Amino acid sequence: KKFRVVVGGTDFDAGAQLLVNNIALELESSSASELVGRLVNSLVQAPGELTVQVRNSTGKISNTLKLSVVP
């Protein structure tokens, strides 16, 4: 299965990265207010909690969101 993560916010720049457990996801689309990334299978194979953040090209990192993976 393929899973997408959609993150909304403000001031995302052209080099923004969507991070899950500190891993940059491949982006399907991006804008100043939304990033859409594809989760890699290894992140969702086992139950647990994932951390989601955005890092702009300046190095500024967003607040952290928690994402639960359940079977």
Topology:
Layout lengths: L2 E6 L8 E4 L2 E2 L1 E5 L3 E6 L8 E8 L9 E5 L2
Antiparallel strand pairs: 1-5, 2-3, 2-6, 4-5, 6-7
Task: Summarize the entry for a quick read.
This protein is mainly β. It has strands at 3-8, 17-20, 23-24, 26-30, 34-39, 48-55, 65-69.
Describe this entry's structure for a reader:
With about 70 residues, the protein is mostly beta strands. It contains no helices and seven strands. It has strands at about 5-10, 15-20, 25, 25-30, 35-40, 50-55, 65-70. Strands 3-2-6-7 form a four-stranded antiparallel sheet, with no helix packed on it. It has a three-stranded antiparallel sheet with strand order 1-5-4, with no helix packed on it. Strand 4 and strand 5 form a beta hairpin. The protein is globular, with a radius of gyration of 12 Å. It starts with a strand and ends with a strand.
List keywords for this structure.
4-stranded antiparallel beta sheet; 0% helix; globular; 3-stranded antiparallel beta sheet; 71 residues; mainly beta
